[in-house]
């Protein structure tokens, strides 16, 4: 008769064999957590291997992602599209089994994990998503949103600061359908953790407001009873400390850090087979064990039952069902551009100077009522960053009927929680903080981009224009560092019109992480009298002049002000510096030096345009180019070349009024004009 240990050993030996074949990986955690995984997946998880995207599935997050072979083995055994050959290809080029779980590559993986702590924080977002959707859509006898979020964590996840941020908020909100199992083995890479991780972890989580207990993690029945108790919690997330032995089953290496990040070796594995009574050859799983693990039929039945429930729900609550479906599909509301266009046209007619953070808030006021999926928030800066529009309703402990989160001063957790909301489905998350504090969130923003999630960042106080707050609050290198993240789009609009264009483009793209960099100080609405817009084609033949203007801005870089005559030089600028570029061009025009001004609100969008557009905006024959941005300088060399000039920041800023700082660092029309003249003189000298 098969025992729980037999089923768990199938996970252990698939993990050992795959890691040994790859000659790379982390066997210790999979061996230690196999009993926990067997109990959770065979007795509690509601999921459908045949449809990993089924909405009402339980979510499982392996926060200690180095234990990836545990998850791959479980997914294979339960029936996901992950073959034995995939396991044998562990950690190889283009495999479905990368070294750490990656969303979008491995069926059944809910989020990319690896950087420790981010998994549990992302799971907080998933659990929160379930709560909000349940409050909105569930009706008596119709629990259409009703599932749990389970997380495995290791010591490293709990040592990382993000776990403190996220779990504190989870406790405050009372996310009772979030259940975390800690692989409490007392070992990390450097050895026994008692020398650097000695806190009372259960007391810590109890202080957060969690329900806690401790069990023997190698006793499947004990884990089962703990999980059953956890599911009875009505107002608290649950933290279960599972005492385990790292590398359980390895005869000479169990309990040692030597099992953490290196294959066990053929001899150790052979002895483990004898110790655990496993008689099968590498990668061979007995049929009766496969049958016990196979979750395909149960998954199909669970999804079919839910589909019947939702079908009946749709008949009784058709409006809610339609909204539910649209939100899960990420559909854009009909005619959502109309209020945006109206706002732009009004601004073009009579708009005065305005900080782009305020322009952004006006856009949210116009659009947010049309987007039920939109969920906002801020890291204790709602008024400063303009993310809280008048119709926003706060989510508070025990009350999940809102659409706005006060994250507290927790930028990193905020970023990961937004990832969880997006990954769960049904939400379009956005949140804000000061641009300089993007550094606190960047590791999770990187994962947003890696997973191609539509997560929107509203970063304000975008330059030395912050003024008296000084160098600690004045971003210098942040714009460049965000732009360096593959797949991300960073928009730094020059005025209210470009801000509207940025929001329009951001909302259109389902699979792009976007950042808005917005000003604290007022910026003028720029004249578009000399702007060159896109030409009408089959897709834009019915477009109004305002729509054509926005389409032009969507290109990321465009000719804002054409020269009076054949341009001899080009000034490229973003944000608050675009107005300076225009003023400099006017000075040069009086000196009979025709200069083109290019506004580049989003370099990433510009770089993706056809060559014809990029050459039209930045003609290859015009080598006299000046880039202008109150940030790091080197990034702009890709556009101006070594023979061009960049006016940017060369240190961290100072504490003084913003206008004083702009003058101090050379962000003046006169200095820009002088720089262009110097370039033109040098070019003329070279020609002679």
| Secondary structural class | alpha/beta
Percent range of helical residues: 40-55%
Strand order of the largest sheet: 9-8-10-11-13-12
Q: Give the strand content.
A: 5-15%
* Stretches with pLDDT under 50, minimum 5 residues: none
Please count the helical segments: 27
The CATH homologous superfamily of the largest domain is named Thiamin diphosphate (ThDP)-binding fold, Pyr/PP domains
Global Rg: 28 Å
Number of domains: 3
| Chain-averaged pLDDT | 97
Second-tier CATH architecture of the largest domain: 3-Layer(aba) Sandwich
Biggest sheet descriptor: 6 strands, parallel
End-to-end C-alpha gap:
94 Å
CATH topology of the largest domain: Rossmann fold
State the shape. elongated
Based on DSSP secondary structure assignment, what is the total number of beta strands?
18
CATH class of the largest domain: Alpha Beta
Structure in words:
The chain has 688 residues and is α/β, with parallel strands linked by helices. It has 3 domains: 4-300, Rossmann fold, CATH 3.40.50; 337-517, Rossmann fold (3-Layer(aba) Sandwich), CATH 3.40.50.970; 545-687, Rossmann fold (3-Layer(aba) Sandwich), CATH 3.40.50.920. Helices cover 44% and strands 12% of the residues. The chain has 27 helices and 18 strands. Helix 1 (4-22) crosses helix 2 (28-43) and helix 20 packs across helix 21. It is elongated, with a radius of gyration of 28 Å. The mean pLDDT is 97.
């Amino acid at each position: 008769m098969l025992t729980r240990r037999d089923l768990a050993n199938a996970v252990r030996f698939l993990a050992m064999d795959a890691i040994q074949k790859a000659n790379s990986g982390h066997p210790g955690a999979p061996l230690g957590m196999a009993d926990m995984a067997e109990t959770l997946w065979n007795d509690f998880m509601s999921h459908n291997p045949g449809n990993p995207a089924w909405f009402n599935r339980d979510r499982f997050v392996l926060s200690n992602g180095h234990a990836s072979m545990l998850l791959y083995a479980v997914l294979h055994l339960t029936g996901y599209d992950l073959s034995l050959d995939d396991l044998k290809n562990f950690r190889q080029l283009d495999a479905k089994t990368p070294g750490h779980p990656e969303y979008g590559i491995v069926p059944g993986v809910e989020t990319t994990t690896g950087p420790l702590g981010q998994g549990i924080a992302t799971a907080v977002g998933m659990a929160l998503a379930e709560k909000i959707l349940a409050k909105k859509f569930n009706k008596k006898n119709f629990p259409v949103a009703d599932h749990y979020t389970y997380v495995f964590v290791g010591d490293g996840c709990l040592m990382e600061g993000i776990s403190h941020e996220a779990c504190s908020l989870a406790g405050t909100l009372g996310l009772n359908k979030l259940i975390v199992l800690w692989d409490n083995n007392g070992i990390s890479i450097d050895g026994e953790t008692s020398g650097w991780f000695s806190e009372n972890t259960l007391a810590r989580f109890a202080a957060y407001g969690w329900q806690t207990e401790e069990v023997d993690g190698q006793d499947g029945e004990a884990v089962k009873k703990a999980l059953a108790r956890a599911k009875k919690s009505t107002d608290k997330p649950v933290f279960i400390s599972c005492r385990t032995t790292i590398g359980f089953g390895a005869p000479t290496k169990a309990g040692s850090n030597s099992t953490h990040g290196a294959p066990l070796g053929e001899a150790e594995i052979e002895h483990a087979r004898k110790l655990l009574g496993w008689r099968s050859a590498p990668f061979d799983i007995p049929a009766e064990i496969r049958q016990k693990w196979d979750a395909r039929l149960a998954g199909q039945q669970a999804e079919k039952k839910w589909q019947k429930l939702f079908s009946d729900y749709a008949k009784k609550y058709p409006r809610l069902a339609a909204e539910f479906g649209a939100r899960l599909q990420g559909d854009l509301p009909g005619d959502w551009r109309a209020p945006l266009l109206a706002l732009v046209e009004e601004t073009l007619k009579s708009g005065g100077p305005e900080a782009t953070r305020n322009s952004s808030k006006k856009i949210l006021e116009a659009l947010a009522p049309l987007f039920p999926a939109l969920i906002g928030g801020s890291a204790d800066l709602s008024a400063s960053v303009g993310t809280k529009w008048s119709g926003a309703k706060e989510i508070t402990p025990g009350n999940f009927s809102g659409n706005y989160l006060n994250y507290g001063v927790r930028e990193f957790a905020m970023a990961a929680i937004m990832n969880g909301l997006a990954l769960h489905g049904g939400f379009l998350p956005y949140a804000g903080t000061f641009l300089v504090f993007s550094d606190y969130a960047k590791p999770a923003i990187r994962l947003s981009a890696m997973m191609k999630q539509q997560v929107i960042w509203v970063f304000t106080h975008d330059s030395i224009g912050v003024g008296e707050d000084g160098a600690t609050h004045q971003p210098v290198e942040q714009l460049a560092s965000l732009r360096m993240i593959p797949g991300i789009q960073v928009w730094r609009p020059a005025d209210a019109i470009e801000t509207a264009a940025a929001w329009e483009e951001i909302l259109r793209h389902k699979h792009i992480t976007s950042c808005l960099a917005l000003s604290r100080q007022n910026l003028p609405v720029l004249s578009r009298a000399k702007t060159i817009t896109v030409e009408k084609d089959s897709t834009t033949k019915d477009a109004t002049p305002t729509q054509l203007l926005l389409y032009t801005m969507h290109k990321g870089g465009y000719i804002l002000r054409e020269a009076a005559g054949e341009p001899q030089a080009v000034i490229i600028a973003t944000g608050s510096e675009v107005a300076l570029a225009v003023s400099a061009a006017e000075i040069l025009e009086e000196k009979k030096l025709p200069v083109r001004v290019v506004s580049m609100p989003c370099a990433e969008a510009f770089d993706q345009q056809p060559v014809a557009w990029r050459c039209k905006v930045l003609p290859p024959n015009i080598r006299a180019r000046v880039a202008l941005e109150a940030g790091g300088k080197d990034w702009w060399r890709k556009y101006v070349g070594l023979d061009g000039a960049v006016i940017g920041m060369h240190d961290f800023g100072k504490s003084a009024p913003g206008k004083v700082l702009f003058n101090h660092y050379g962000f003046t029309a006169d200095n820009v004009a002088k720089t262009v003249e110097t370039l033109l003189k040098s070019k003329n000298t070279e020609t002679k």
